[in-house]
Amino acid sequence: MSGTAKSKIFGVLDNIKKTFPALKEVLEASWKEGGLDETMDLTFEAPSKVATLPTFDKSKSRKLTPMLKARFEYASTIKYGQDIWLDPNQMALSMADDELNIYHTSLRDHWENSAPMRFKDKDLTLFGITDGCPEDRVYLVWKNEGKEPELWSYMGMEVLEFKNLEKFFEWHAGMK
């Protein structure tokens, strides 16, 4: 694996850990001021050895790219507030979940230029979900074989597209 990819991903995930307490403090104070008794936590589950990732096409899986390999060497599941960046088993289970698939199909049928409308199921992996918001999701978009996938994050009616995993994590760390 490219040492550069590993150092980049480990570095940005370390930065998420470093910047999270300040974000947590600001958000929880804001929520409390608004009368909400909510908390925001960050958890990293033990790393896992992964060779491939499932796609929405159950007959097709994707080999890990250097950045994705580094991500799973750092941690399996990562919980960032309500957002859950899934491990491969959770990815497969979530992509088979009827409620989550309703939204995948709806994006394909009704959201012009959405990832599911533009790309085949063999080119899409569910990377992340938001607890309690089945319409919120993050796709790995495998545009080019052998290249790092893009990450397309859907939050309500907003979509953010990231060039790769490093850029996605940098955004969450407040670096870009």
3D structure, described in words:
The chain has one domain (3-172). 42% of the residues lie in helices and 24% in strands. It has 176 residues and is an alpha+beta fold. Helix 1 (3-33) crosses helix 2 and helix 1 runs parallel beside helix 6 (165-172). It has helices at 3-33, 66-74, 88-96, 98-110, 115-118, 165-172; strands at residues 42-44, 52-54, 61-63, 78-80, 83-85, 124-130, 133-141, 150-155, 158-162. The strands form two sheets. It has a seven-stranded antiparallel sheet with strand order 1-4-5-6-7-8-9. A two-stranded antiparallel sheet has the order 2-3.
Task: Report the structural category.
Answer: alpha+beta
Can you tell me the number of structural domains?
1
Low-confidence stretches: none
Total count of helical runs of at least 4 residues: 6
Percent strand: 15-25%
Radius of gyration using CA atoms only = 16 Å
H/E element order: HEEEHEEHHHEEEEH
Largest sheet: 7 strands, antiparallel
Could you give the distance between the termini?
A: 25 Å
Mean pLDDT score: 93
Task: Record the strand order, biggest sheet.
Answer: 1-4-5-6-7-8-9
Q: Write down the overall geometry.
A: globular
Count all strands and give the number.
9
| Overall helicity | 40-55%
